[in-house]
Specification:
Number of domains: 1
Keywords: ATP-binding, Helicase, Hydrolase, Nucleotide-binding, Nucleus, Ribosome biogenesis, RNA-binding, rRNA processing
Radius of gyration: 17 Å
CATH class: Alpha Beta
CATH topology: Rossmann fold
CATH superfamily: P-loop containing nucleotide triphosphate hydrolases
Function: RNA helicase.
GO molecular function: ATP binding; hydrolase activity; RNA binding; RNA helicase activity
Bound molecules: adenosine-5'-diphosphate, magnesium ion
Strand order of the largest sheet: 3-4-2-5-6-1-7
Domain Helicase ATP-binding: 56-232
Number of helices: 10
Motif (Q motif): 25-53
């Protein structure tokens, strides 16, 4: 066996044994891959915020999550770390693995911010191919890039355009879906696009849904997209 396989096996065991009832304070307390640990360290992330402390251990274990916490509480890392880790342990990397994770954001600006965080934390040795699908390039250019991506950060309208128009786009291997700022996605009128995207995706996947507010529309979306979710709501300042 290769050294990498042994490392992945050890990590899988550590995550299986992870006790989610104990509060985690620092990122070094979590069973994370060496590349993620190095990325967090290089980015000077040391202590978990409240939403991160509650969401990350459960998300590492593969649970679906509905997380609500106000703007600025650190929701991005609460899903970026589980995406990197769960794909790493699932060895969902390289051109043969295909598209394994989709992160949907309401706006291009927010998608770019998420991509920057993904890059920052993932830059120290992770081998994933990640990209943006937010328009602004030709559909053709995006299609070619998408065919090589393991992780896509996208806006709903543009992603749906690819799913409905790109015959070659295979999403059968998708393991994780993240809906970030779900309240804003819905406020901006993307409900139907989201429903249509969900129809294309494998049902056997992990879904993480994050929102700044808990609204009726968000809970309706949660019912549609999540399976037996853990509800995490953080009200106090993080
Ligand atoms: P939200 O999506 O909840 O609005 P963000 O993920 O955008 O919040 O994070 C808000 C700010 O907090 C960012 O500048 C981010 O770099 C910082 N941040 C997030 N998590 C941590 C952490 N664990 N330690 C220090 N700073 C953090
Ligand atoms: Mg955010």
């Amino acid at each position: 066996r290769k050294r990498d396989d042994v490392d992945v096996e050890k990590l899988q065991q550590a995550v299986a044994e992870l006790d989610t009832s104990t509060p985690f304070k620092d990122f070094t307390d979590l069973p994370l891959s060496d590349p993620t640990k190095a990325g967090l360290k290089a980015s000077h992330f040391v202590t978990l915020t409240d939403i991160q402390a509650r969401a990350i251990p459960l998300a590492l274990k593969g649970m679906d999550i509905l997380g609500a916490a106000k703007t600025g509480s650190g929701k991005t890392l609460a899903f970026v770390i589980p995406v990197l880790e769960n794909l790493y342990r699932g060895q969902c990397v390289g051109p043969d693995a295909g598209l394994c994770a989709m992160i949907i954001s309401p706006t291009r600006e927010l998608a770019i911010q998420i991509f920057d965080v993904l890059y920052k934390v993932g830059r120290k040795g992770h081998l994933f191919a990640a990209g943006l699908v937010i328009g602004g390039k030709s559909l053709r250019e995006e299609q070619d890039a998408l065919a090589r991506m393991n992780i896509v950060v996208c806006t709903p309208g543009r992603m749906l355009q690819h799913l409905s128009q790109t015959a070659m786009l295979n999403v059968d291997n998708l393991k994780m879906l993240v809906l970030d700022e779900a309240d804003r996605i819905l406020d901006m009128g993307f409900q139907r696009d989201l429903d249509a995207i969900l129809d294309y995706l494998p049902k056997d996947r992990q879904t993480l849904l994050f929102s700044a507010t808990q609204t009726r529309k968000v809970s309706d979306l949660a019912r549609l997209s999540l399976r037996d979710p853990e509800y995490i709501s953080v009200h106090e300042s993080a």
